[in-house]
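Help! Submission page says 'invalid entity' but I think these are all valid:
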Amino acid sequence: MPDSPRIRLATNVLLALYAVVALLPIAWMIASSFKTDRELLDGPLFALGDAGFANYVKAFAARPFVLYLFNSIFAALVSVAITLVVGVCAAYAFAKLRNAWTEILWYAILASIMIPLEAIVIPLFLEVHSFGWQDTYAGIVIPTALNAAGIFILRQAIHAIPEELFDASRMDGASEPTIIWRVVVPIIRSNLMVVAVLTFSFSWNSYLWPLIVTTSDELRTLPLGMAAFQMTLNTRYSEIMAVSVFGTVPMALLFAFFQRYFIQSSISSAVKG
Amino acid sequence: MEGMRQRWAFYLLLPTVLLLAIFQLYPVLYAFYISFHTYDMMSPPVFVGLGNYLRLFSDTQFLNSLWVTFFYVFWTIVPVIILSFFLALAISRAGSLGGVWRLLIYLPSVLPFVSVALVWKLLYNQRGPVNDILGELGMQAIPWLTNSTWAPWALIGMSWWHATSYYTIIFLAGFLFLPKDPFEAAIIDGASRWQTLRLVTIPLMKPTIALVVVLATVNGLKAFVFQQVLTDGGPANATQILTILIYKSAFGYMEMGRASTYSIVLFTLVMLISLIQIWLIQERRNA
């Protein structure tokens, strides 16, 4: 139904109002990171303060945030790499090499996508403990690295590739790995990006598992470092905001470059939950 | 040739199967196993049969957490779903600015969860902006995070802000896939705006609505970061959702058996709701 200009204007005004609500806390976070604590608590809400980068400097002096950042990026990249490599192989088998066994296994994958990590952290911790992986990079990264939802998304994409493309390559004597690399990967490149972005943000937000499995400060990922920093005595509010902004920057950059994939990955993750 | 392909299927699936068996299937089975024992990681597990499960019914901490969880999930998802639905509907009809609104409304989802938690913790500070605004309106400051009546609402309120951003995008995807014909028919029949919404839009959007209800419920049940950072389950356990209780019982009090029993309850709730989700997706595919 075509809306009249007046209704369309009203729609846009309402959306603008909500957009302000959505953005206010973010704007306030950024503004606060440049204020002194006094300005933050008693000054006007959105004026930039006099602190300059002092809060950032102090926060970085108090804790090794660059190390936390490195740990987070490392964990996220390993998770993305494992999910893409292992995932595309599995997805190809599920989509194009089907047999009775892969069908059964497919249901197992669906079930495992549903299993909430929050409900299995205790046995997972005991298991990782018995591996001697407690408080190691392997312990932080490997148990949660494979994002099974990625397999789901990639399988859908590979499923849509017409069979003739594979037949031609097989006729030329290409092996299955060659087909995956030469035929599948180029076609589903944008789906791989979606899965990469999705897996990266899962890992970036990962909190409960690293919290349980790490004890030493050098292994903390950024979310843990940020949370621990705010619990430290004498930490200033404005410094906490500086750290919050710092944690957002990598995601914001990623979002700026890969906006399309971000929104697509949010939609795809709806199949996961 | 065919045998070759079968062998490849095996090799290609092997890494996935190993990872999932070691880090998902085994932990699930192990969780059930521990839930029938008491175990503190010092001495070997002691079998107690259904003891942990029978204790649930008189375990006031657990019953409190179950109630806190349901309260949180319910009051989070109902407003969020209604708000996201209408925001998405508005964006789909906003014309040329639609893309801009979609982008801006999505931004809270780009923030890391811990950043969101830290910002809101400060927004709810006794002398923070939320109370400043209440003061401007002539109201008393509210001890958002230190009062057991207000703290659950503080967490619910921030979830509205955070979750709406995500579910609006999901709804929007649903709106964009709606067929055009029923709406044209509604115009020809002279249906009013309200009638069109009630009789055409909502019925057509039912699968997406159902999907969002399921998603939001599962995500609500799995919430952890906000509660941990803002209140750590307090004050007086008022925000101690199941995940926080599990974490504290296992890693604070080393009661692995009891905590595993709580985990099984959470597991069962999430799996039941996820089964409904699968069924809904299947329905949609068949529709």
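Support: the input was valid. A stray whitespace character was the problem, and the output above is from the cleaned input. The first strand of chain B starts at residue 37 and ends at 38.
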